[in-house]
Give the backbone structure.
Amino acid sequence: MQPQIAPSGQQLPRRHEPDLVGLAAFTLDGAGRVVSWPVTATHLFGCQAEAVIGQHVCDVLMTGPAHRALVDHVLAQVAAGSVGTTTVAGGLLGEGRFALRWEPMAGPDGIALLILRRAWPQSAPGWLTAATARIGRSLDLSQTAAEVAEVAVTDFADAAAIYAAERLLAADDRASLSVGHGITVRRLAARLAGHAESATSGVLPPGEVLFLTEGTPRAQAMVTGKPVLVGHVDDQITGHAAARPDEPEIVAGYRSFLVMPLTARGVTVGCAVFGRTAGSPAFDTGDVVLAGELASRAAVCIDNARLYDRERRTALALQRGLLPSQPSIPPGIEVAHLYLPVGDNVIGGDWHDIIPLPGGRAALIVGDAMGHGPEAATVMVQLRTAAHTLAGLDLPPQQVLGRLDEMAAGMEATLAGMTAAPFATCVYAVINPSAGTADITRAGHLPPVLARPGEQAQVLDVPPGLPLGLADGSFQVAQFALPPGAILALFTDGLVESRTRPIDDGLAALQETIAAVMARSQGTIDSACKATAQALSGHGEDDITLMLARIRSLQRGYGTARAHP
């Protein structure tokens, strides 16, 4: 390296070697002239204070192409009271790359504090270790992509954007990309050095779906699985930029691009685009190696987040589709129902349903498939669908459970790694408002609780039957009087049983709770359902389903079912 010459003509000492990691803070006036120059700046750059005070910062350090325009832009931001960040290289800075933070300072001359540190070249292992440690801290897809973009800006690039193949996000289509076809991608995240996240989102909005035409750098990288170095903005990016007021000017400032495919488990899940401005060194083969290490880690984390997001969306869709919403309830009946999954499960083995029947009657079903999570949900889906269909045929209650028993006995489900015929418990009740009765049968399920006005709640004596799936087929029906105002409670064992509470104690607590909450809720059945579940659900060891029903008195008029999420 040749000796540096200050504007005054004084020869400056040789600067420290490039591997020195340094930090210096000095001040500028509103015109960009150096006001103060501490010893740390002298150590870092070799420039003496008397040689640089009063000189424009571009004449002292940043003499490379486009530096002055960049400095003028940032100084305008500082004058407006904003903090600016840039990354620069070249000029008297040499081949090193420096991250700058420009902060406004109070004063009549609009003085700015410039904090400058060496950004790169850095020790590759150290940089990658720090960067990859920040990626994949959550399984949120957008957050994971944002973490990748953030570690790249400004330590590796002036801009970064992360894209995922739309076919993987929408349909989990893992087929190989082929030449001759365009690719649809979704932008997950983007970061631009010197721009706030909100401003970046206006230019490169997350979630935007784009079609990449054949031969464009992003499509090429995803099809070939190889990095692509580009020294200009491709026509498709320019075309997209033209649609937004501020984007063409921003895009025009970038002169070097590196597109890295994101490949995980042998499938290209997307691509990462890194950009550098004219004031930064162009990407080279050494940068490709570093970006490859970063992309490898990023691809796995993004694919993990994608898979988690897929499973979560599947579970939510199942939950919305399987749990009853607002069914048509005969006007003579009030029903409230509530479902609480245990732990992190979105759905499990519990199900409940309400089916209107001829003559103003309604069938109420509560069931519980063995196990938790998706395995139990698989069994529950089939049984609930079959139960709804059978109930709609207005078959006698014992025949409904008999046919469900036959169906469960013929099913196979993989539970805990073993193939076995699944089983489930179920209680089925048909309420007849005109007769004031409830016909109830059960298959290995806990008996309902009945609370009559002015009386102590009681556990109904319904013949137990065997669980569904044992091919027993013998179920008996018991009929109970259900006068207007009386509450019938159907529930799963998660409400009343746990390792610390015997089932008999739980049933006793349920009887007491229903009477108490009815008195506090002023007769509102949906409030009673919610309050009962809250009072008894503190153990959190199993899914909880609770359904309350009663026949309306003539004074109450008509109503619909109430559901609590």
Notes: The longest helix spans residues 285-322. The chain has 16 helices and 26 strands. The CA atoms of residues 198 and 370 lie 48 Å apart.
